[in-house]
Amino acid sequence: MRWATYASSEGARTGLVHDGRIHALPPGESVLGLLGDDGDKLREAADRALTAPAAVARLEEVSLLAPIPRPPSIRDCLCFLDHMRNCLKAAGAPGGLGPVWYEIPAFYFACPSSVLGAYDDVPIAPGSAWFDFELEVAAVIGRPGRDLTPDEAQRSIAGYMLMCDWSARDLQMLEGELRIGQAKGKDSATTLGPFLVTPDEFEFAAELTVSLNGRRIGSGSPAAMDWSFGEVISYASRGVELQPGDLFGSGTLPGCSLVEHFAGGSFPGWLTDGDVVTLSGGRLGETRQTIRRGPDPHPLPPRPGHPSLSVALNQS
Predict the structure, then answer these.
(1) DSSP result, the chain
(2) What is the C-alpha to C-alpha distance for residues 309 and 169, in angstroms, rounded to an integer?
(3) Which of 63, 103, 266, 281 falls 20 to 30 Å from 214 in CA-CA distance?
(4) Domains, the chain, with CATH or none
(5) What pTM does this model have?
């Protein structure tokens, strides 16, 4: 099954994608509302959508939203260790990863309120000149669970979708000095969709690609994950009740971000206004988004004790 959410005069509508058309459910039903069990509600809703749709629309005639426009939570993981190795090499710090990378899977929390649909414009994070994309796959939790084994966690997945983690690399680098995790370098935008694809229709060996202005930047397969979704979800569920609709990003497929090409001759420059980024994922669908200049940030005054302020006071 492939599910989509689209904008209508009655608000967001949800439907089953079949033969290039969305077979819509009645107003008020949502992908999130169809989760919570082992998939029975999704299957029952698919039967209703095909046999007695509330509306039928061609995909090209509607404005697609993210399948789940406001997930309860977003955890973005780092399941491909080669991505981190590539980033270190690009930063001039080649070498192996420390033991902790092989002991626990890394993740951080992203911002559910900044989720974008597959064809929405993407504003550059305020204050960033090093804006980047990251091609990922997202797994969506279908039923609640806590302290899950990796097998239980894998079975809790209701479906998958394309994900783009938009990253302000200059802000990310600055915030890294604080050593408390990701913040404004990561929360300006996250793209999801266009479809939620149930596990029976998702092929982990499929090739995914990312292109910038028609030029392929990178490609890869989820089959190359060093940490599986089952493992990272199991880890995240330790002492925590995961909820239907919680979303887990795979982390960047190696070579599928600009920062990884920074030190080589293939670096095309950071994203600027008017650039078009396209993700392609087979049954997962395709995203195509235009980058737009973001707002200027409101400045914050320096804190007492800041070196520059101390120098200014001493000189006055």
Answers:
(1) -EEEEEEETTEEEEEEEETTEEEEPPTT--TGGG-SSSSHHHHHHHHHHHHS-SEEEEGGGSEEE-SSSS-S-EEEE---HHHHHHHHHHTT--SPPPTHHHHS--EEE--GGGEE-TT--EEPPTT-SSEE-BEEEEEEE-S-BSS--HHHHHHTEEEEEEEEE-EEHHHHHHHHTT-S---TTT-S-EEE-S-EE-GGG--TT--EEEEETTEEEEEE-GGG-SS-HHHHHHHHTTT--B-TT-EEE--PPTT-BSGGGTTSTT---S--TT-EEEEE-GGG-EEEEEEE--PPPPP-PPPTT-HHHHHHHHH-
(2) 26
(3) 63
(4) 2-65 (no CATH), 74-292 (3.90.850.10)
(5) 0.95
Structure tokens at 179: 């050593």
